[in-house]
Write a structure and sequence with these properties.
alpha/beta, Rossmann fold, 3-stranded mixed beta sheet, 6 helices, globular
């Protein structure tokens, strides 16, 4: 069972609809007792770093996720801000992140971008996945994914980066460490490529 974590973020219904189409068991919940019953988790993401972390901390969800993911090794996949909170901190806010993958979230340097509108990075972009990136099996990397963001995950260890995107500079757009995965783009808005990612996450 995949738990799509409900913490007031957008795009939850879109993620649930994809798993419904794929006929993969899932539940949308933010209730700690229900979260413990799942074996995989998705942190969907539309929102700000501090607001997301504040809600997760205040609701008790962080404590449950630490218990289930870092304690028991259950898998989790973060999307957009759901990926960014996997880091230790962010230039967008002041609160600490989950710290599951070492790194800091940084703002894209608009001075490196050739034309306006420079930010946010919005629209479809091809990606360059690494060979060992299991989430990208069956994905058309040239077609890529849909992006909408101002910040990127600057991973401390380059081995944690599983895909990059070019937007003024080469920056990480997907990370993974053991049972923890994250992606900056929105697979729920990325048609067949996104469906492949959601299916892969359910199977790895």
């Amino acid at each position: 069972m995949i738990a799509i974590i409900d913490y007031g973020s957008g795009n939850i219904a879109a993620v649930a609809n994809i798993y419904k189409q794929l006929k993969i068991p899932h539940v949308v919940t933010g209730i700690p007792e229900e979260l413990r019953k799942a074996d995989r988790y998705i942190l969907p993401g539309v929102g700000a770093f501090d607001a997301t972390m504040r809600y997760l901390n205040d609701s008790g969800i962080v404590a449950v996720l630490n218990e289930q993911i870092t304690g028991q090794g259950k898998k989790v996949m973060g999307i957009c801000v759901g990926m960014q909170i996997l880091a230790e901190s962010s230039e967008e806010g002041e609160l600490a992140g989950l710290g599951w993958i070492p790194g800091r979230v940084r703002k894209i340097d608009a001075n490196l971008l050739p034309s306006s509108p420079k930010l946010p990075h919005m629209g479809w972009n091809s990606i360059t996945p690494k060979d060992h990136a299991r989430l990208f099996e069956g994905v058309d990397a040239e077609r890529g994914f849909y992006f909408l963001h101002n910040y990127y995950f600057d991973a401390t260890d380059a081995n944690d980066v599983t895909a990059t995107v070019q937007y003024g500079m080469e920056m990480p757009c997907a990370v993974a460490r053991a049972n923890i995965f994250g992606m900056q783009f929105h697979p729920e808005k990325s048609h067949s490529n996104g469906m492949a990612v959601f299916r892969n996450f359910a199977e790895i």
